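Please check the following for our workbook:

***
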Amino acid sequence: MSPIATARFRRATALLAVLWAVAGLFLGVRGNLAEAQRPRVPFISSGIAGRQVVNAVSPQATAAGIERGDRFAAIDGERTATWLRGTRRELAVGVANRYRLEKPSGEFLEVDLEPLPPGSAGFEFESVLAVVIPGLGLIYLLVAGLVWRLRPDRADSWALLLFSASMGTQLFLAGSLDRWGAVFVWMTLPLIGATSFHLFTTYPLEPAWIVRRSSWRLVPYSIAALLSAAVLLAPWLSIPTETAAQLGFLFAIGMGVACMGILGYERWNHRRDFDIARADVMLAGAMVTFVPLIGSVLTQYLFSVAYPWYVGLVSVFVFPLAIGYGIARNQLFDIRLAARSSAAYGAVTLGITGLFALLISFADALFARFNVDARAPGFSIGFLFLAVLFFNPVRGRVQRIVDGFFDRDRARYRTAVREISEAMVSMLSVQEIVERILLAVTDTMGVERALVLLLDETGARFDVVAARGEVDEDVDDLELGPDHPLARQLWMRREELARADFDDEQDVEVREAARDVFDSLYAEVLVPILYGVDLLGVIAVGRKISADRLGADDRQLLRTLANQSSIAIENAKAFDEIAQLNETLEARVEQRTDELRQTQSQLVQSEKMRSLGQLVAGVAHELNNPIGFVHANLQLLQGYVDRLESDDPEVREKAREAIRKLLTRSREGTLRVKQIVEDLRTFSRMDQAELQEVDLNEELERTLGLAEPRFKDRVRVERDFGELPRVRCFAGQLNQVFMNLVINACDAMEDGGTLRIRTAPIPDGVRLEFSDDGPGLPEGLQDRIFEPFFTTKPVGQGTGLGLSLSHGIIERHGGRMWVESEPGVGATFIVEVPEVAKPPVQNEGDPAQEAM
């Protein structure tokens, strides 16, 4: 059968299963409503395969000798099973019916009793169960429907839907005495057995003998179809209805026990595999859900106990929730820790309760020894207060100890994430970043091996750039490129993948190619390193040294590391490119020191480019986000454009709506890029060399916005802007001065601090002050700070021209610039600019002037 035909068949059968469950829900609701509006039998019975056992008795039935535990055999000479599913004569108020009941001793009792009138009370427990049990059926149906919605192409979600539909139908009709409801119940029983076999041989471990002969799954379905047909056609085939129902019941019970045996056997065969956690969860869920249910059903069927069999349904909701989550999330489970912690809490609680009881007993003995009346209210209240006062700190201390023991891994992970986040802020080397990731993975999580693969410069393949643990030498020969099926899955799903995630892959080549990568890397989980829409690399993690499986906390840590490393890697690449650019420019300047004028011109240009490079370091990230967003939208746009050729008008309309939304969002991204470029152009005034009137407060804000990535999360900026008159100046040159002063202040405060900027009007101009919390300037250097080529920075980190050029710009505007500083206190650079700058003076031959 082709994949398309398989998908259609699954959808059709899933629809039939849901319709069957909906019909059962309708019949159950209708039956319960009808029972409330008509006379009813003077006792409550529950039945298994047509064998009805009395669970509750009315006063008149008790007076007639009917007791709980009696088997309801016949009414008015008609067998109970036949009466339930057949013509079913209606009961009438005031008209007695003859009931035949079988005692546990084997004796028969025949009594004539009138039915209870409509709406009579007395069976509240059964009324509650009539609401609770159908609610459990809704849980089955809703969970299975949600899983099918999330994973419509998976065989296990299809099997879960079929099973949940049959179980839900049974639960909807558990308390119904409607004749069609009884028929539906008996017809559904064998279907539960068939769908159980289907589910347990599909998820989570598919037996090898089923893989070789998948047609064996049809055998239980064929038997179930015959048994259901026998129930439906029993009156015409001269088969006792009770016999047909009992056969279906025994088949369902037998298949349920066999399924748990199959799962336990497969779990044992795969006990050394990585991915057996889902088998543990399913086996535990089946034990919690079906063992009490099967036990109660068999007990009532074999021994006719007085309690209704559906009391065993109290934990039936556990199974669909656990299995549904496992199929939908397709992740490893970590329930052993929860089980151990719950057991520890229970043991501690039991111990404290025992100590409390011992203390009470000791106090009673002590009171009796000294003839103290312990029953006096004062003694009782006082003793209880002292006991609670004593045990409450003990309980709190023990709880903290248990929490610390079972939560130590999470605490260690949280500490690791915090330390890595702080460390990666200052890392500018890609190799240093990946080494730090591997250190966290191997030491914190305790795995045997871990590798980091990054996309090479050509973008053709992912190379292993770092590894820890036992790694084979031939891992470098791994052929993993962006077009590899595994790489495409990591890019599309944008989440970690395990080897088991490809078990349901229908394309054999894709499945085997993915498994080859896992086997070559000896990896249990692969985590994508994503930046925007780009896949930068992969973190490959092996199994733990302790042989424990990677749980939810481990995967969360890996996702966090991948997210943080992607940003750090991109930043490191950007800084490397800028550093290389600056080194190249400075090297070119140093090569031309023989000619003063040419050297000075080159150094001035280098200073401007260094400032521009510092801007680009921050702006690169701001541009990368909207550009990446637009790029992703363009990829999606291609898919929707292809849908415009569809013959379905609804598909075309949806495609047009999606295209309009994508274009709107893309336009927002391009406007963001345009705004950033406009801010840069306005900042430098590249196309405006004339004098113009500007608000220096606005220019300062623009400068701080562009320089924000340089001091973000390290330097705090305090603004004290006064109301300034508009100044006629060369705004681009003044912006260069402001940027130079802001960058110098940030460089001076290596460990962080506060940059205070004050502006105020002065007669015929404005005054600007830039104050930092840095080490300040030693005495004797303040007079030289504006000299060309003089710098306090290490070699290679500055040209010594920034303040000199800034000083010259302010002087040419007709203003003043000076510095006030005390060693250890900080420095304040003061700038005063007139409202109208001096007209420019062309000094031919002055390279500094030409560079402006």
